[in-house]
Design a protein that fits this description.
Low-confidence stretches: 106-110
Strand content: under 5%
Helix content: 40-55%
Radius of gyration: 15 Å
Shape: globular
Number of domains: 2
Oligomer: single chain
Number of strands: 0
Length: 110
């Protein structure tokens, strides 16, 4: 999960986010995990304190060096997310998706 899932401003994102967190708390879905790559976002001064508390308990990975194949996979994810748009704007989201696939998210197809 990306850190913005904790504090959505609009529907349907706000309702979906609340449902995900409630389902996790009630064990209807597995535990939520946030990759270390979101730490910079969570530590931003504008991030609400409750978001910091909730999310920091869910980070279960550390930044480590990537193998050549992992770097290639991460670039492929960035290609998909950026499409014909700016790669720099999507780089952090691509990192989150890559980290989620590496550390137990949905199985990577890259």
């Amino acid at each position: 999960m990306d850190s913005c899932a904790f504090d959505p401003k609009n529907e349907p994102e706000a309702g979906a986010s609340l449902e995900i967190f409630e389902s996790s708390r009630n064990d209807r879905i597995g535990a939520l995990t946030i990759a270390h790559s979101t730490l910079k976002e969570v530590e931003h001064p504008n991030t609400p304190d409750w978001v910091k508390r909730e999310s920091l308990a869910m980070i279960r990975s550390l930044e480590v060096g990537l193998t050549p194949q992992e770097r290639k996979n991460q670039e492929q994810i960035l290609d998909v997310l950026a499409g014909n748009g700016g790669r720099d704007k999507m780089r952090q989201d691509a990192t989150h998706v890559f980290e989620a696939s590496k550390y137990g998210g949905a199985e990577s197809t890259t």
